[in-house]
Fold:
Amino acid sequence: MQRIEETVKPYDQNFTTMVPTGFVKFMRTCLIWQFIRFIAINIKMIIVVRKSHG
Amino acid sequence: MARLVVMGGGVSGHTAATFAKDWLGDEHEVVVVTPNSQWNWIPSNIWVGVGQMSKEEVVFPLAPVYEKAGIDFRQAKAVSIHPNGGEKSDKEYITIEYTGQGKEGQTEEITYDYLINATGPKLNFGATPGLDEGHTVSVCTADHAVHANLELKKVFEKAKTEKQKILVGTGHGMCTCQGAAFEYIFNIEHEANKAGVRDNLEIKWISNESFLGDFGIGGLHMKRGGYAASSRLFAESLYSERGIPWIIGAHVSKVEAGKAHYELLDGSTGEEEFDFAMLIPPFAGVGLKAYDKDGSDITDTIFAPNGFMKVDAKYDAGAYENWKASDWPRTYQNPTYSNMFACGIAFAPPHLISKPMSSVNGTPINPTPPRTGMPSGIIGKNVAHSVTDLIKKGPDAHLHEASMAEMGAACVASAGKGLTDGTAAALTVYPVVPDFEKYPGLGRDLDYTFGEIGLAGHWIKHILHHLFIYKAKLKPGWTLIPE
Structure:
């Protein structure tokens, strides 16, 4: 996993944006956390889909 | 008995035809005219383009499905519309030219009582010199994606021993479908890591968006860490994390072997060399013509100059400052011929969704409005509902409405395939077309617009792949699956 210091260079194009820390990247593929997010995202999407079907 | 003719069998046309047949039953005819023998779940072409799916996994033959549904399937392309009939009769008809079913090249006239235009886009590679000469690849069709994967694998092979450069993005200043290119570049990056060749690959993004994360919808905002964060931060963060630099506000003006020329919004020009490039072409209408009873050309009456069909939108809103959410169509009925409708990419949008931009030289450089995916399916279903009611209840029946300015969209953009190591950006935006009167400033409802990156998004994308192919095959319970 690349560290932030290896990705961002001073005053390069990507210097002014947010770059995820190692913890954030770990959580993106953490099975337990992602299962919880799977449920949460599905509920949110179903609400938007229902609103959009008139 | 009434006859509904649906031109096009993609997401919107297939949805419209199958629902209309289901609601109309055997008392009325539904005819589908589409040049392809197979239905394609286009979002998964991305995975075909990186070798993670085969073509067979993203397509299926239409004929058996339509036979089961009782739909008259013509594998042909629609050529012209004659809404006032012709020399022999006043009855409306279209002309078609067969591309299959053993009748290749033969032409035929099909009369209709109601017509739905769901012809989708013409992939207008010719708009950019060199884009159609094999220097670049695309993932717009399943066959294109198969070819893209073959070329990509050659680059991956070379990257084992030497540096290679990959360029992905839009191939013209007026392109739409940035999301497909977005997905492809991150899937390439993901696969390059898996193949152990990432260190030898320089991967670069080029796009007509004025800011990363515009996506042709003027970007979006979502709640993040106590802020309303722009999709620009969301996108720039992902590109930075994956080590992918970007060129934005770019009109690719010419493509040569291994080189793309571009103009930027500030008027400057540049060149970008590549060993492999996937550049999305701009879209245009498919080139349908329309003729009056006496044979005179009335194409301009029915179609906008870009070839898309005029519907009940406000096309004379003028400058960006005058634009309103209410400019967008609600019923998709043609204003001249009330028995004609358009859905999906085939309808002419009233104006851009992103703010119009042009370079200091006057070259327009801005994304054109997307009408794909969930909105395309919802519009197709609503148009089918309207036509069904017109047939069953009479010409005064209330038309169903589905404005993109009152409709949300759920979008899952893959950033790498893998059941345990994949990721995707799961997004919703509400409404698709910003309504600055109802939601001043951001144009959208922050409670229903959100996005996050993670494995959960990939699982959702994978499930949607199977769910929508199941639905399109009209398997038991298909009507219960939302668009």
Q: What stands out?
A: Chain A touches chain B at residues 2, 7-8, 13-14, 17-20, 25, 27-31, 34-35, 37-38, 41-42, 44-45, 47-54 (CB under 8 Å). The mean pLDDT of chain A is 89. The radius of gyration of chain A is 17 Å.
